[in-house]
Amino acid sequence: MAQEPILTARGLVKRYGRVTALNNADFDLMPGEILAVIGDNGAGKSSLIKALSGAIRPDEGEIRMNGKPVSFSSPMDARQNGIETVYQTLALSPALSIADNMFLGREIRAGGFMGKVLRKLDHKAMERIAREKLSELGLMTIQNINQAVETLSGGQRQGVAVARAAAFGSKVIILDEPTAALGVKESRKVLELIQSVRARGIPIVLISHNMPHVFEVADRIHIHRLGRRLAVIKPKDYSMSDAVALMTGAKTLDQAA
Ligand SMILES: Nc1ncnc2c1ncn2[C@@H]1O[C@H](COP(=O)(O)OP(=O)(O)OP(=O)(O)O)[C@@H](O)[C@H]1O
User: Fold this and answer.
1) Is 225 in the pocket of ligand 1 (CB under 6 A)?
2) Residue 97: helix, strand or coil by DSSP?
3) What are the residue boundaries of the ABC transporter domain, all occurrences included (predicted)?
4) Which of 4, 78, 124, 198 is most buried, by the most CB atoms less than 10 A from its CB?
Protein backbone atom coordinates (compact mmCIF):
# COMPACT_ATOMS: atom_id res chain seq x y z
CA MET A 1 0.00 0.00 0.00
CA ALA A 2 1.24 3.45 -0.85
CA GLN A 3 2.20 5.60 2.10
CA GLU A 4 -0.04 8.51 2.98
CA PRO A 5 1.58 11.92 3.40
CA ILE A 6 1.79 13.24 6.95
CA LEU A 7 1.34 16.87 5.95
CA THR A 8 -0.32 18.14 2.79
CA ALA A 9 -1.51 21.42 1.38
CA ARG A 10 -3.77 21.97 -1.59
CA GLY A 11 -4.46 25.19 -3.45
CA LEU A 12 -2.90 27.59 -0.96
CA VAL A 13 -3.31 31.23 -1.87
CA LYS A 14 -1.80 34.12 0.06
CA ARG A 15 -1.99 37.68 -1.16
CA TYR A 16 -0.23 40.71 0.25
CA GLY A 17 -2.02 43.59 -1.41
CA ARG A 18 -1.21 43.22 -5.08
CA VAL A 19 1.48 40.62 -4.54
CA THR A 20 0.40 37.00 -4.70
CA ALA A 21 2.95 35.19 -2.56
CA LEU A 22 1.20 31.81 -2.84
CA ASN A 23 -0.66 31.14 -6.02
CA ASN A 24 -2.46 27.82 -5.73
CA ALA A 25 0.41 26.06 -4.01
CA ASP A 26 0.42 22.35 -3.20
CA PHE A 27 2.67 20.53 -0.77
CA ASP A 28 3.22 16.95 0.40
CA LEU A 29 5.50 15.66 3.11
CA MET A 30 5.86 11.90 3.45
CA PRO A 31 6.55 10.16 6.77
CA GLY A 32 10.22 9.87 7.63
CA GLU A 33 11.58 11.85 4.71
CA ILE A 34 13.78 14.88 4.34
CA LEU A 35 11.96 17.11 1.87
CA ALA A 36 13.96 20.10 0.65
CA VAL A 37 12.08 23.17 -0.54
CA ILE A 38 14.00 25.25 -3.04
CA GLY A 39 13.04 28.29 -5.07
CA ASP A 40 14.29 31.62 -6.27
CA ASN A 41 14.11 34.72 -4.08
CA GLY A 42 10.50 35.75 -3.75
CA ALA A 43 9.15 32.42 -5.05
CA GLY A 44 7.02 32.06 -1.94
CA LYS A 45 8.96 29.50 0.12
CA SER A 46 8.70 31.47 3.35
CA SER A 47 5.03 32.11 2.78
CA LEU A 48 4.46 28.39 2.26
CA ILE A 49 6.33 27.51 5.42
CA LYS A 50 4.56 30.22 7.39
CA ALA A 51 1.20 28.86 6.27
CA LEU A 52 2.21 25.32 7.29
CA SER A 53 3.52 26.48 10.66
CA GLY A 54 0.65 28.75 11.67
CA ALA A 55 2.54 32.04 11.24
CA ILE A 56 0.14 33.23 8.53
CA ARG A 57 -3.34 32.19 7.57
CA PRO A 58 -3.73 31.43 3.88
CA ASP A 59 -6.55 33.26 2.07
CA GLU A 60 -7.56 30.05 0.32
CA GLY A 61 -6.66 26.41 0.30
CA GLU A 62 -6.50 23.51 2.67
CA ILE A 63 -3.87 22.00 4.95
CA ARG A 64 -4.19 18.45 6.22
CA MET A 65 -2.22 16.59 8.81
CA ASN A 66 -2.52 12.81 8.74
CA GLY A 67 -5.47 13.26 6.41
CA LYS A 68 -7.41 15.56 8.73
CA PRO A 69 -8.02 19.22 7.82
CA VAL A 70 -6.20 21.59 10.17
CA SER A 71 -6.28 25.34 10.52
CA PHE A 72 -3.59 26.79 12.71
CA SER A 73 -4.37 30.08 14.40
CA SER A 74 -0.78 30.68 15.57
CA PRO A 75 2.70 29.11 15.58
CA MET A 76 1.89 27.88 19.10
CA ASP A 77 -1.19 26.14 17.76
CA ALA A 78 0.86 24.43 15.02
CA ARG A 79 3.42 23.45 17.61
CA GLN A 80 0.78 21.88 19.80
CA ASN A 81 -0.21 19.84 16.76
CA GLY A 82 3.37 18.63 16.40
CA ILE A 83 4.78 21.03 13.81
CA GLU A 84 8.01 22.61 15.06
CA THR A 85 9.68 25.32 13.05
CA VAL A 86 13.28 26.42 13.53
CA TYR A 87 13.84 29.80 11.94
CA GLN A 88 17.20 31.15 10.92
CA THR A 89 16.83 33.77 13.62
CA LEU A 90 16.79 31.13 16.32
CA ALA A 91 14.28 31.75 19.03
CA LEU A 92 16.79 31.01 21.75
CA SER A 93 17.46 33.17 24.79
CA PRO A 94 21.20 33.88 24.67
CA ALA A 95 21.67 34.52 28.38
CA LEU A 96 19.92 31.31 29.44
CA SER A 97 21.61 27.93 29.66
CA ILE A 98 21.28 25.14 27.10
CA ALA A 99 18.98 23.20 29.44
CA ASP A 100 16.79 26.23 30.16
CA ASN A 101 16.52 26.99 26.47
CA MET A 102 15.47 23.47 25.69
CA PHE A 103 12.64 23.75 28.18
CA LEU A 104 11.65 27.34 27.42
CA GLY A 105 7.87 27.48 27.62
CA ARG A 106 7.55 23.88 28.83
CA GLU A 107 9.45 23.93 32.09
CA ILE A 108 9.17 21.01 34.46
CA ARG A 109 7.90 21.99 37.92
CA ALA A 110 9.13 20.40 41.10
CA GLY A 111 6.77 17.94 42.78
CA GLY A 112 4.45 18.75 45.66
CA PHE A 113 3.96 22.09 47.37
CA MET A 114 7.22 23.61 46.09
CA GLY A 115 6.26 23.10 42.49
CA LYS A 116 2.51 23.50 42.58
CA VAL A 117 2.27 26.51 44.86
CA LEU A 118 5.69 28.14 44.71
CA ARG A 119 6.16 27.26 41.02
CA LYS A 120 9.64 25.98 41.73
CA LEU A 121 11.32 24.39 38.71
CA ASP A 122 12.86 20.95 38.69
CA HIS A 123 16.25 21.98 37.30
CA LYS A 124 17.83 18.59 37.90
CA ALA A 125 15.19 16.82 35.81
CA MET A 126 15.45 19.38 33.02
CA GLU A 127 19.23 19.10 32.94
CA ARG A 128 19.06 15.32 32.84
CA ILE A 129 16.52 15.26 30.02
CA ALA A 130 18.34 17.97 28.06
CA ARG A 131 21.55 15.96 28.33
CA GLU A 132 19.78 12.80 27.17
CA LYS A 133 18.17 14.54 24.21
CA LEU A 134 21.43 16.12 23.07
CA SER A 135 23.31 12.86 23.37
CA GLU A 136 20.63 10.91 21.49
CA LEU A 137 21.20 13.27 18.60
CA GLY A 138 24.97 12.98 18.84
CA LEU A 139 25.38 16.49 20.21
CA MET A 140 27.42 15.67 23.26
CA THR A 141 30.34 17.80 22.18
CA ILE A 142 28.37 20.34 24.18
CA GLN A 143 29.91 19.56 27.55
CA ASN A 144 28.16 21.75 30.02
CA ILE A 145 24.42 21.82 29.90
CA ASN A 146 24.45 24.92 32.12
CA GLN A 147 26.54 26.88 29.65
CA ALA A 148 24.81 30.03 28.41
CA VAL A 149 23.70 29.72 24.80
CA GLU A 150 25.50 33.00 23.94
CA THR A 151 28.83 31.23 24.55
CA LEU A 152 28.10 28.56 21.91
CA SER A 153 29.17 28.61 18.28
CA GLY A 154 26.58 29.18 15.56
CA GLY A 155 26.46 25.48 14.73
CA GLN A 156 26.03 24.48 18.35
CA ARG A 157 23.19 26.98 18.74
CA GLN A 158 21.52 25.55 15.67
CA GLY A 159 22.04 22.14 17.26
CA VAL A 160 20.29 23.18 20.46
CA ALA A 161 17.38 24.65 18.48
CA VAL A 162 17.00 21.49 16.38
CA ALA A 163 17.38 19.23 19.43
CA ARG A 164 14.70 21.23 21.18
CA ALA A 165 12.41 20.83 18.18
CA ALA A 166 13.09 17.09 18.03
CA ALA A 167 12.86 16.46 21.74
CA PHE A 168 9.22 16.97 22.50
CA GLY A 169 7.21 14.55 20.45
CA SER A 170 7.10 16.67 17.34
CA LYS A 171 5.70 15.06 14.21
CA VAL A 172 7.22 17.43 11.65
CA ILE A 173 10.26 19.69 11.87
CA ILE A 174 10.64 22.63 9.53
CA LEU A 175 14.13 24.08 9.22
CA ASP A 176 14.53 27.45 7.58
CA GLU A 177 18.03 27.84 6.10
CA PRO A 178 19.74 25.99 8.96
CA THR A 179 23.22 26.19 7.44
CA ALA A 180 23.06 29.66 5.90
CA ALA A 181 25.11 31.38 8.59
CA LEU A 182 27.53 28.52 9.25
CA GLY A 183 31.02 27.59 8.17
CA VAL A 184 31.91 24.33 6.44
CA LYS A 185 32.57 22.27 9.56
CA GLU A 186 29.57 23.55 11.43
CA SER A 187 27.30 23.00 8.43
CA ARG A 188 28.50 19.42 8.30
CA LYS A 189 27.49 18.89 11.92
CA VAL A 190 24.06 20.35 11.29
CA LEU A 191 23.57 18.13 8.21
CA GLU A 192 24.50 15.11 10.32
CA LEU A 193 22.05 16.25 12.95
CA ILE A 194 19.29 16.53 10.35
CA GLN A 195 20.02 12.97 9.28
CA SER A 196 19.95 11.72 12.84
CA VAL A 197 16.58 13.39 13.37
CA ARG A 198 15.28 11.58 10.29
CA ALA A 199 16.75 8.33 11.62
CA ARG A 200 14.50 8.79 14.64
CA GLY A 201 11.55 8.79 12.29
CA ILE A 202 10.75 12.51 12.29
CA PRO A 203 10.23 13.97 8.81
CA ILE A 204 11.96 17.25 8.01
CA VAL A 205 11.18 20.12 5.69
CA LEU A 206 14.44 21.82 4.79
CA ILE A 207 14.29 25.23 3.16
CA SER A 208 17.67 25.98 1.68
CA HIS A 209 19.46 27.85 -1.07
CA ASN A 210 22.49 25.62 -0.67
CA MET A 211 22.27 23.10 -3.51
CA PRO A 212 25.11 20.82 -2.38
CA HIS A 213 23.48 20.53 1.05
CA VAL A 214 20.07 19.92 -0.48
CA PHE A 215 21.40 17.27 -2.85
CA GLU A 216 23.32 15.60 -0.07
CA VAL A 217 20.52 15.08 2.44
CA ALA A 218 17.15 15.42 0.71
CA ASP A 219 15.06 12.39 -0.22
CA ARG A 220 12.92 14.59 -2.44
CA ILE A 221 13.12 18.21 -3.56
CA HIS A 222 10.04 20.42 -3.82
CA ILE A 223 10.76 23.13 -6.39
CA HIS A 224 8.77 26.28 -5.74
CA ARG A 225 8.35 28.82 -8.50
CA LEU A 226 6.11 31.88 -8.84
CA GLY A 227 4.07 31.08 -5.76
CA ARG A 228 3.40 27.42 -6.44
CA ARG A 229 4.92 23.96 -6.56
CA LEU A 230 6.46 23.47 -9.95
CA ALA A 231 7.68 19.92 -9.43
CA VAL A 232 9.01 17.44 -6.94
CA ILE A 233 12.20 15.71 -8.00
CA LYS A 234 14.53 13.10 -6.58
CA PRO A 235 18.13 14.25 -6.27
CA LYS A 236 19.44 11.14 -8.00
CA ASP A 237 17.36 11.83 -11.12
CA TYR A 238 18.51 15.41 -11.74
CA SER A 239 21.73 17.40 -11.67
CA MET A 240 22.13 20.41 -9.44
CA SER A 241 22.29 22.69 -12.43
CA ASP A 242 19.02 21.29 -13.78
CA ALA A 243 17.36 21.87 -10.42
CA VAL A 244 18.56 25.48 -10.49
CA ALA A 245 17.42 25.86 -14.10
CA LEU A 246 13.94 24.59 -13.15
CA MET A 247 13.82 26.87 -10.17
CA THR A 248 14.71 29.96 -12.18
CA GLY A 249 12.64 29.04 -15.21
CA ALA A 250 15.68 28.63 -17.46
CA LYS A 251 14.49 25.10 -18.22
CA THR A 252 11.14 23.33 -18.23
CA LEU A 253 10.68 19.85 -16.79
CA ASP A 254 10.75 18.35 -20.30
CA GLN A 255 14.05 20.04 -21.05
CA ALA A 256 15.59 18.97 -17.73
CA ALA A 257 14.44 15.34 -17.77
N1 LIG B 1 4.47 40.57 4.78
C2 LIG B 1 4.53 40.81 3.48
N3 LIG B 1 4.02 41.92 2.92
C4 LIG B 1 4.08 42.15 1.61
N5 LIG B 1 4.63 41.30 0.71
C6 LIG B 1 5.16 40.17 1.19
C7 LIG B 1 5.14 39.86 2.59
N8 LIG B 1 5.75 38.65 2.76
C9 LIG B 1 6.11 38.23 1.53
N10 LIG B 1 5.77 39.14 0.59
C11 LIG B 1 6.00 39.02 -0.85
O12 LIG B 1 5.54 37.75 -1.27
C13 LIG B 1 6.43 37.20 -2.23
C14 LIG B 1 6.92 35.85 -1.74
O15 LIG B 1 7.77 36.06 -0.62
P16 LIG B 1 8.43 34.89 0.24
O17 LIG B 1 9.16 35.56 1.36
O18 LIG B 1 7.40 33.90 0.58
O19 LIG B 1 9.45 34.26 -0.80
P20 LIG B 1 10.74 33.37 -0.58
O21 LIG B 1 10.72 32.35 -1.65
O22 LIG B 1 10.79 32.89 0.81
O23 LIG B 1 11.91 34.39 -0.84
P24 LIG B 1 13.42 34.44 -0.25
O25 LIG B 1 14.13 33.25 -0.75
O26 LIG B 1 13.92 35.70 -0.84
O27 LIG B 1 13.28 34.50 1.24
C28 LIG B 1 7.52 38.22 -2.46
O29 LIG B 1 7.20 38.98 -3.58
C30 LIG B 1 7.47 39.05 -1.19
O31 LIG B 1 7.90 40.37 -1.45
Assistant:
1) no
2) strand
3) 7-251
4) 78
8 Å CB contact between 70 and 63: yes
Query: Which of these, 231, 186, 167, lies nearest to 35 by C-alpha position?
Result: 231
Q: How far is CA 201 from CA 72, 187, 213, in A?
A: 24, 22, 20
* Residue identifier of the C-alpha nearest atom 12 of ligand 1: 21
Please name the residue whose Cα sits nearest to atom 13 of ligand 1.
21
Atom of ligand 1 nearest to the CA of 44: 18
Beta carbon of 208 within 6 Å of any ligand 1 atom: no
Ligand 1 touching residue 58 (CB < 6 A): no
Please give the model's pTM, rounded to 2 decimal places.
Answer: 0.90
ipTM of the complex: 0.96
Q: What is the pLDDT of residue 142?
A: 60
Per-residue pLDDT reduced to its tens digit, 126-165: 888 888 888 877 765 666 788 888 888 888 888 888 888 8
- Residues 29-56 have pLDDT tens digits of 999 999 999 999 999 999 999 999 999 9
Overall CATH class of domain 7-89+171-179+200-256: alpha beta
If one residue of 15, 18, 24, 45 were mutated to test the ligand 1 pocket, choosing by the most ligand atoms within 8 A of its CB, it would be 45
